[in-house]
Amino acid sequence: MKRREFLRSMSAVAAGGMVSAPAVWSPAKAQSRQETLLIVSESGPNNLDIHGVGTNVPGYEVSWNCYDRLISHEMKTVNGTPYYDRDKFKMELAEDMKIGDMSATFKLKKNATFHDGTPVTAKDVKWSLDRAVTVGGFPTFQMGAGSLTKPEQFVVVDDNTFRVDFLRKDRLTIPDLAVIVPCIVNSELVKKNATEKDPWGLEYTKQNTAGSGAYRVASWTAGTEVIFERNENWKGGPLPKIKRIVWRIVPSAGNRRALLERGDADISYDLPNKDFVELKDAGKLTIVSTPYSNGIQYIGMNVKTPPFDNLKVRQAVAYAIPYQKIMDAVLFGLSKPMFGAPADKATEVAWPQPTKFNTDIAKAKQLMAEAGYPNGFETTLSFDLGFAGVNEPLCVLTQESLAQIGIKCTINKIPGATWRTELNKKTLPLYTNVFSGWLDYPEYFFIWCYHGKNSIFNTMSYQSKTLDGFVDGAVTAAAEGNKATYETDVKGFVDTAFTDMPRIPIYQPYVNVAMQKNVSGYQYWFHRRLDYRSLVKA
Amino acid sequence: MTALAATVRHARYVMGENPVTGFAFALFVLIVIAAAFGPYLVPHDPFASDTIVALKPPSLRHWFGTDQLGRDVFSRVIVATRLDFFIAIASVVLVFLMGGLAGVAAGYFGGWTDRIVGRIADTIMAFPLFVLAMGIVAALGNTVQNIVIATAIVNFPLYARVARAEANVRREAGFVEAARLSGNSEFRIVGFHVLPNVFPILAVQMSLTMGYAILNAAGLSFIGLGVRPPTAEWGIMVAEGAAFIVSGEWWIALFPGAALMIAVFCFNLLGDGLRDIVDPRRRT
Amino acid sequence: MGNLILKRLLLAVPSLIGVVIVTFLLTRALPGDPAAYFAGPAATAEAVEEIRVKLGLDQPLIVQFVRYIGDLSHGDLGSSLTTGQPVAAEIKRRLPASAELTLLGLLVSMAIAVPLGILAATQPGSLIDHACRVVTTAGVSLPVFFTGLILIYVFYYKLGWAPAPLGRLDIFFSPPPQVTGFYLIDSLIAGNGALFVASLKQLILPALTLGIFSLAPIARMTRASMLAVLSSDFVRSARASGLSSFTVVVTYAFRNAMLPVITTLGMVFSFLLGANVLVEKVFAWPGIGSFAVEALIASDFAPVQGFVLTMAIMYVALNLIIDILYGLIDPRMRLEA
Hints:
CATH superfamily of the largest domain in chain A: Dipeptide-binding Protein, Domain 3
Largest interface: A-C, 63 and 68 residues
Mean pLDDT of chain C: 82
Shape of chain C: globular
Order of helices and strands of chain C: HHHHHHHHHHHHHHHH
CATH class of the largest domain in chain A: Alpha Beta
Oligomer: heterotrimer
CATH superfamily of chain C: MetI-like
Number of strands of chain C: 0
Strand content of chain A: 15-25%
């Protein structure tokens, strides 16, 4: 008997360990909960400075909220959601912008200060933009996209006046000053922490935010969490409503959903589409879905090597993609179809726009026969494992459908870190990927993805003199303000791309954000990350 | 012949005494049947998607429900048996060939052979084993054969040590001495006299590590290093289905998870039972 | 004793060298290209090449290895690409999280497995014995990530008993001042009861997940060891002298049977510390395991090398400690040494 009692008490101890004590609620905790916003996402930043070497996309979000730029964008409303207005600029650190023929002059806000209290001067602006065009890598590349490439272009007129000289007429120059990269850094503070080996102080800004933005990073535990605190003296706009932002990294999508549903997390923007649809239907959370600006998920084919050098094969593939199945089973309807436009529909002066392809296996088989592959062939279909949630089912469905026209694909999962390297080799025969440009202009997309100068985003190695002519024409026409030529050229390159079909557009993805009902103020930005400054928690 | 008859009699006795082993053996037969005939028995094509019936709960038509692409989970679970069974068998055979032989050589010859095998085993043991398996698969590429190789390498020390200890004991045994005196070469002695005697002990290990092989493959799938889609494999099905648990589609992960557990469970219990048969004193 | 330790340490050196070499080669064989990663999404081929030179990755493997060994001898484990932090600092910060979780998992496991093993040993061949075997074997037959997800689903999502699976602490608590790095101990040192409860709550589910997985070896060893002891002469004479069976089992047999169990615990601990990588991933636990997995997937050399080396050293140290403990507990061992 005694032995039983002993064992019983042992198992009671074990069972007791499983029951959690009731939550301890204190008024102070409730108060801080009110002023704190908890964001959960799959991955976090690896660097707090977008000028840093190899800064990842979550790092861009830190930069956007902790640094200011000279100018930013106004908001407009698209489908009921605040959406950045590509064509309307608002002042952030500048209080005034005058665009001349070959330069733009900015007057700085006189009372603006960095987080450490030092005033923001034209010297800081020049140092920051010099830094962006000099450090190399992504920031320099992005500055170059707006013809901002040389430090000589940035001129300090006086303490409060700053001028950007244009290299050439380019309508992307001003918009490029409103992207994340040209952020203004506290030059004195960073210089103090720079070394001979690291003249731009990248090591310091990797770990510390040295800006004038609405928030500053109070603590950062890589891979775990970032805590932001509001800058009470922010001059770039109205003081944000939320005092403290906690950004926790939760790798499991199921856990992120559970956290939202149980009301523990306030906001999350990377969940599987299915979860967004179900959360929307359940009605307990606010779900906002906005199409990616200038973005497309596509199937790419390497046009340099057989069999995809054959136009008929590419068309056959385009007819064999199970478009609607992908929309239903993979995306749960949360995307904009980029296929199946009516046959008589005129090409628009817009991008992205749908192709006229639909799933038509009979036609695809016929094209394969005409191309000289009546029995099909074998190939590999590659995707980025980093986005397996969408890519894997998409590829499985495509593989199954291509098998019907004799194309036997082996699916090749490529880890996220290796994906870009593999893509850049330009040897993958068949793959799916997303491209989306920060600057929302059709010609911008085509310069990178289709133009014969063969940028790294032209993953198909596509070459066409006709298309190049239209793209170059559109760029010149845009700079000169020649609307009619511009429109003809845009239609021209879209038509050429759809005729030659080196890449098959499938859909325009949505950015989905799920938040608690008491959270509002979400704004869509071209970079698709969260802007904390407008968020409100009731 | 009489030895065999005695073993059979002993096995029957152990099973009679230990119903759990009998049960495990019955499960094992089921698994073998599913592995051999699964593809001919299943009611649906395990790879055919049908997005109209995607994510449907278990029903008379789809016993285990359907997955995100409308594939029949029951058919996939059954068909996956062959691959998982293959991964398990192949990896234990491979590790038996590597670790078992190396261990026997080390135990029998001693000296440098022993030292080298011992060092290799020690080095592998000092690794965090799952991370080593991950590293091998990540470096070689995620194919079935690399998963098998990684699992075999990770289990190498276990086999080498057991085989070494057993061979070492038998080195001076009477029957080895007799073989030596009758002019057999050392290699012949190892191959025909020592190895057959060590084999039963290793067979116990093999049954136990078969379960580990399947768990290892499942873990690799969970972090994205599993087999290629759309291959049906329990681990990858559980890993894929895991994302659907919170949204209520429990059947996608649960059934392959249950199949996986039953198989591993069966191999483990069978290993215990085998141990009883091979070495009654060691029963734990 | 000192000789024994020294001998064991010397024996471990070749293993550690082997680990360093194999890890170095393995990470270099990973498919990723750190230069391309560093160069960013829009880099040209020249830019990638430039960074490759800067990182020293254009050098032959042997030169890279010599440099790595040089850094290692200064205690420099390099920096992680994905988190941007020095690896040594990351490991130092994350190790206590993993160790605390693993130790608690082991405690949970012992609390269940030891009584089960004793129970099974007292009635070998009975229904209880078989049930014990089936239950513990079932525990080790489940993939840990699956057990973890199910526990979260049931105890957090459905029942709401467990706190959100958000790592070591609820966001409204700050960690205690660091003494040991174990939140449970540090919060007690700081005298903060609420913090202790909060960190315990976060620990329960992941520790239970690990515990379930490690039931089998502990229960088996307990059972086997108890069986051996129970059939030994001194237990028989204790029984014969009329002591109650409870006293015999707990006071006499159990105490003597614990020695092999403790040895097993050491092995299980080092096994679990490496195996909990998946549990850490499921529970967003900021330990070294999840750190290593992420790094490996991202082809991020330095953390993988650092992690493997740390684990290897811990493995060697742990084995040494067990041997020493064994010597202290068991006088026969001491005599032999």
